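User: When convenient, might I ask for sequence and structure tokens for a protein?

AI:
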Amino acid sequence: MSKKIIILNGSPRKNGNTSALVKEFTKGANEVGNTVTEFLLDSMNINGCKGCFGGGKDYDSPCVQKDDMDKIYSVYKKADIVVLATPLYYWTISGQLKTAFDRLFAVAECNCDYKNPIKESILLMAAEGYEFEESLYWYDSIEKHLGWKSIGKILCGGVMALRDIEGKPELLKAYELGKSIN
């Protein structure tokens, strides 16, 4: 049975190393009949969460702020799998991804107990270095808190300049991870 997959791509580089991981993952996922929707967050107008607890009143547009998150909400709610794709910035996820992820709280506000929709998830991350500990701590903690199930992590270190990722085994791993989803 095919799955609906949403990719929140927090890279500012449309053709960067993180996006190369996304491209290979998507190729594999599409080959086995999944539906993949990617959002390149850097090219979207997404404001930071205001912490107002005013969301959840409109199921289709749950946040009180009206910006490009409205394009994401409907896809997110229908998705079986959420892919968090990001470069490593200051030992954690990019600001673009963190901003969008924080705004997903408005969907939880649609429930009186603030329960988040249960999802499977994947982390795709590219970095100049090889120290992913803080990012993994955040990812594992958020998975536990939300009740989500991680089905894969592809971490590719040693890639800073555009196309540094070419020839890296993590590209094949991303493709195979995508292809394994059915």
Q: What stands out?
A: The longest strand covers residues 149-156. Helices lie at 17-31, 69-78, 95-103, 105-108, 133-146, 169-179.
